[in-house]
Amino acid sequence: MLFNTIHFLLFFIIVTLGYFSLGWSGRWRLLLLSSCYFYMIFQPIYILILFSTIVIDYFAGIWLENEQNIHKRKLLLVISLISNIGILAFFKYYNFLNDNLSAILGLVDLKNPIRALDILLPVGLSFHTFQAMSYTIEVYRGNEKAERHFGIYALYVMFYPQLVAGPIERPQNVLHQFHQFHRFDWEKVKSGLFLMAWGLFKKVVIADRLAILVDYCYNSPAERNGLSLLLATFFYTFQIYCDFSGYSEMALGSARVMGFELMENFRSPYFSKSISEFWRRWHISLSTWFRDYLYISLGGNRVAEWRKYFNQFTVFMVSGLWHGAKWTFVIWGCLHGCYLIIAMLRNKYFPQWRLPDNNLGKGLNLISTFILVMLAWVFFRAQNTHDAFLILQKISYFSLSDTLQSPLNGTELLFSVVLIALLLIKDLKFFYVNTRSTLKFVCLMSILAFFIYFLGVFNTNQFIYFQF
Fold first, then answer.
1. Residue of higher predicted confidence among 93 and 466
2. b/e map of 321-349 (b: 16 or more CB within 10 Å)?
3. What's residue 393's pLDDT?
């Protein structure tokens, strides 16, 4: 179910009203059933895949907590992780790996005996797989007690606000909240509804409007000139931010209305002054997941210097692969890994090359970081590596004398730029909007509703991160 539809609005109202009219036992049942319905709207049969991983990890958590033998505990954890990763690998990477195997065998004139399969990727599989894995890892490490209530554990994995596109939660933050009885809190309701409205504004007014030019240029880059592709890349930088952060804010908001607090997923990322800072502000739930469960497991910073760089690069390469079974995603991840390693090497061996810590230096660092991130997005959005390199080549030779190729007229382009400017001003100056005043809340909601209705692009565009 898409957040930017009337269907979801009706679903949210019915579920929320029902939630506050029930006792604790009725609430978790309602949320679990409604989450199942929410997921089955996309692909009904794939609820069985989700159910199988829930059953495996539920019992794995209990066995891990009860087992004292360290070798058996490791075996149980490995079985749980292999089950989760195996399901993810089959649905997401089977054809990718098979196609690459065919290409390799073709180099020596051999035919691949393994057939490609017509596999439809379950929506949000990467997100709830990682959330389930965080549970068993935390139980194994002794940081979390195994959840004995099967319904509550199932709800931890399936909670509808963050089921298909995060944030990727940790059991320490969420599980205990499902055991609590949340009383109706008008302040949380106001704050949550405003977050939902702001997230919807970012999606339908900004992201989907910018997508018109982005799709026009990126779907046929050979027919577009460098100036058009540069502007499309600039627009995509904000499209993906508004699309994904908009979803996250709608998720946080819909959960907060019912009294639940999910983790923050974005923190004004385009005001970062380095790549490392960017990843502390962008998709926080995923970047901290890789830090805590992969980077630290590889040794983190407690290893030889060359190994530390290897660990960093590995994490970003895997992060790219996590986003999609395409070489463009892998290259995108590797680029960010290289950015980070080069910065670390510069800081260690050439500290004199660092810009001064004054306003000018900070401004230049901010601009250079933004440019590096924007250029990397080319690989993330391009349909294949050939298109990505073609786009970068054309951008490098762009000319201001080029005729701008765009389905948007001059007024629409100017309006799009104004929206981006307002977004940046909001991120910079008004990071937190206080809704304690009911009058202020009503005014803000009315303004947002007006702009969403009259300026929104309602073409049921799927959120970008649903494909992951």
1. 93
2. bbbbbbbbbbbbbbbbbbbbbebbeeeee
3. 96
| Cis bond before residue 351 (omega within 30° of 0) | no
pLDDT in tens, 348-404: 888 888 888 888 999 999 999 999 999 999 999 999 999 999 999 999 988 888 889
pLDDT digits (tens, 9 = 90+) for 118-144: 888 888 888 989 999 999 999 999 999
Closest CA to 205 of 450, 457, 463: 457
* Residues annotated as part of the active site: 323
pLDDT score, position 105: 85
Q: In whole angstroms, give the CA distance from residue 41 to residue 229.
A: 36
Task: Identify the CA nearest to 163 among candidates 15, 47, 303, 329.
Answer: 47
- Compute the half-sphere exposure of residue 276: CA atoms within 13 Å on the CB side of its CA: 9
Domain ranges of the chain: 6-181, 187-467
Residue written as token pair 């660990």: 311
Write down the pTM of the prediction: 0.93
Q: What is the pLDDT of residues 43-86, one digit of tens each?
A: 888 899 899 999 999 999 999 999 889 899 999 999 999 999 99
Tokens for 151, please give them. Answer: 């319904």
Q: What is the mean pLDDT of the chain?
A: 91
- Helices 226-257 + 186-201 axis angle, to 10: 160
Report yes or no: 123 and 466 within 8 Å, Cβ to Cβ. yes
With a CB cutoff of 8 Å and minimum separation 6, the contacts of 199 are 3, 245, 246, 247, 248, 249, 250, 251, 253
**Distance in angstroms (rounded) separating the CA atoms of residues 356 and 30:** 56
Q: How far is CA 47 from CA 124, 125, 296, 349, in A?
A: 12, 11, 32, 52
Enclosing H/E stretch for 236: helix 226-257
Q: How far apart are the first and last CA of the chain?
A: 15
